[in-house]
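Researcher: Go.
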Amino acid sequence: MVTPVGEAVTAYVATRRWASGTTKHSTYTLDQFADVVGVDTPIGAVDHDACARWWATRQHLAASSARSRRSTVANFLRWCRHTGLLDGDPLAGIPIPREPRRMPAVLSDDDVAALLRVLPDDRADAIVRLMYRLGLRCIDCANLQIGDVDLKGLTITITGKGGHVDLLPLPVECATAIRRYLGRHRAPAGPLFRTYSTPSRAMSAQHISECVGGWLREAGIKQARHDGIGAHALRRTCATDLLKRATIRQTQAVLRHQSLQSTARYLRWSDAEELRSVVDPA
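Model: Structure:
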């Protein structure tokens, strides 16, 4: 049976257990791939030249974006091989773009203090403290339920990307901030961080990201739209702070990285501080 590329893409996406954001991004990338190589082209006829034509349309992207698109298509083609729809790897020989090494944008202690000073209310204070003390992402905060927080045992259950669930210790300052917030906005159950317009509804990850970005601008920390200083900078700040006093394995556990390589990206900043006494003994 001949399976067109478009049908193969639909079948592949249906087998994945992705988060909604990943599904949307991957489907968009694969639809673009199908448009270039031909939606009705048999998947078994997709060869190196067809992949090269698609890859040529991605050259305007930044290296990180191009790598992401290539990885999405590579995973799709690998699935096609495993299901017997395709022989060989038509992406072979197409180089993976190398990303320039950049220092991650992190906040200084003064930046964190300035940010905390401009926060408008207890909800904002609790969100920011969870982000820079435990490295929570916007989606992690959006997923939090009141029952996930044990203010007596000082633990917090995080449902992160891909539905992974982790139990972490809750820093005292975070527990204090959450307790203060819940004291003003009581609820027996449901989302922890709720919208003010509809108190029964959780804040979305996008809403949280926009709020944090606004607070960073108000504090004078974020200077431009694409300066790398956004909500995720709080997670990076947590990572670099942890590596000053914890092992890389402990840091990996707090950040909930699946790969140790993801955690290792933050070592360059930490190593620079550790090497200070070597290059400047005085």
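Model: DSSP finds 14 helices and three strands in the chain.
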